[in-house]
Specification:
Elements lengths: L5 H7 L5 E5 L6 H15 L4 E6 L17 E2 L4 H9 L3 E5 L9 H9 L3 E6 L10 E4 L6 H11 L8 H14 L10 H12 L4 H9 L4 H12 L2 E3 L4 E6 L1 H6 L10 H6 L6 E8 L4 E8 L5 H8 L3 E2 L3 E6 L3 H11 L4 H4 L2
Parallel strand pairs: 1-2, 1-4, 2-3, 4-5, 5-6, 8-9
Antiparallel strand pairs: 7-8, 9-10, 10-12, 11-12
Helix pairs in contact: 2-5, 2-6, 5-6, 6-7, 6-8
This protein binds guanosine-5'-monophosphate and manganese (II) ion.
The site of guanosine-5'-monophosphate has 12 residues, from strand 11 and strand 12.
Amino acid sequence: MIKAQIPEIKALLSSPKNIVIVPHKNPDGDAMGSTLGLYHYLKMYNHNATVIAPNDYPDFLKWLPGDDTVLKFESQQEDSKTLINNADLLFTLDFNAFHRAGDDMAEVMEASNATKFMIDHHQQPDDYAKYTYSDVSMSSTCEMVYNFIEMLGDTDKIDATIATCLYVGIMTDTGSFRFPATTSKTHFVIGNLIEKGANNSEIHNNIFDTNSYSRLQLLGRAMQNLKVIPELRTAYISLSQAELDEFNFKKGDTEGFVNYALSLKGIIFAAIFIESQQDQIIKISLRSKGTFSVNEFSRAHFHGGGHTNAAGGRSEADMQTTIDKFISILPTYKQELSQ
Ligand code: 5GP
Ligand code: MN
């Protein structure tokens, strides 16, 4: 989305519309924060807006203002389809290709006649939206929603509710303001959101200090399973379905585990492999430091993608085969990994 399109968008938003707002599948803090932040903003203009998440998300996000209005496509297909089919405007947030909402939902969105918007910071965005605001340098989609509201000349409309939602995604996607995409503008936006009423300490507590005992025990197991390949500055973790079951795994419990592997001195590439019996896959999260692109690595080997320093992927082989494949690929990146 270029600034030149803003008057057109303003005109579109000047009368009440049916609007659907969609985050990616397995929504994280940035996905739910950005969609709900935009939702509350659009509601101020009396739009008939609804957030439809492809599927459920972790409990630590369920306190977000407006959470009770969110539909889940997976369990509310008929209502979701009706809303998407009747939408005038469709906002897709925090993802860059329809399939990231899951194949079923992607099909419905693709077929819809709604005017499409993309607001996203992932690399290599697809070109499906009439209005694309894509910026891979951005810390988070939440920061971009703030910018979007700013471009519309409406920062004075940001209240404590919107501020709370947007704060969540900036905080989670920046690893609490420590990842390199955190800029002075990010801090400026965060400062403004606090000014508008976001309670920073309470939000941090709601997201990070609501651990269950079993989650910490699962973290303990993950740390026991941590393996290091020092000569390639790589570390990885695995968790089998049996281990997840042993510790009463709930959605979101493994969030952030991979960062412990990356925190090892000298390590610049970290992976976690998590078995999902339900999906019949090994889910993979990849993280790096510096210029080694886990986005490219995941695209090349594990059907995924994301950002330079954080990406996801999957494998349809079993755990051991997947890890063996991972280990066997690594030496081809020897030069980049030993830099
Ligand atoms: P996570 O490892 O936390 O699931 O994902 C890390 C980052 O990569 C997030 O920004 C997430 O949206 C993105 N991501 C995860 N899986 C995929 C994928 O399969 N494809 C793409 N393009 N991005 C992904
Ligand atoms: Mn994001």
